[in-house]
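I am writing to request your help with a piece of structural work I have in hand. I set the record out below, with my sincere thanks for your time.
___
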Amino acid sequence: MTPGQRAAWQALGLGPVWVRRDARAALGEGLDPSGAELPRPDEARRAPPSPRETIRGEAIRGEAIQAEMARSADPTPMPDWESLQASVRTCERCGLCRSRQQTVFGSGSPTAPWLIVGEAPGAEEDLRGEPFVGQAGRLLDAMLAAIGLDRARDVFITNVLKCRPPGNRNPEPDEVARCAPFLRRQIELLAPTGILVMGRFAAQALLETDASVAGLRNRVHRYPVGGAELPLVVTYHPAYLLRNPADKGKAWADLCLALARLPRQRAAAG
């Protein structure tokens, strides 16, 4: 492990390298409390739902997303990268177009082997037009650096939603469904070697399931596109990890799985 990777690994809350006995204590190390993302206002005012309520809510929302995606057709031609960007930039498919500052198409290298898919832009992303640039983005940078990846060179990053939901609320099923063709076309045009999915809404949209992240992580899924099946790994969203640092160890395991199972290089042209 290089010094840079060691520092990033510890910034993720998993250091020092040689300490393994007390996982919970190790997970909290290196996390600056003043830099932690604050819970959403509605989360601060109410007690957390019971596990049964959480599972039921995820199932209902997942079913709604699947139903909306089945009803949503995509009449807009998006044959190439430039026309896809233009379609996203001028999109008015749902009500989010009325509250956004700008759309967030994605960032990174279009020729990178990995595609990272998050959920939706936040306030900073909405202002800058780039994904993962807030506190969650800084944690993502540390996560990538810990496994030797650079976000500008080795990955392309995008979200399921290209517009920020007001107040950073959760995406609605119809919003996910109406944005889904954009993400699908991005995947077709990028043709990555593998996909790393971060967060429940992204996982449910891509895998067309109502399962939770806990039920989807720790294994390799297959995403069909262009007559092939791309390996896909699910993990927790960095914003979730900032609120729940005890799960950083699970996210680290997911990153190690992705590193082992998602190809780091594209096949040589023939």
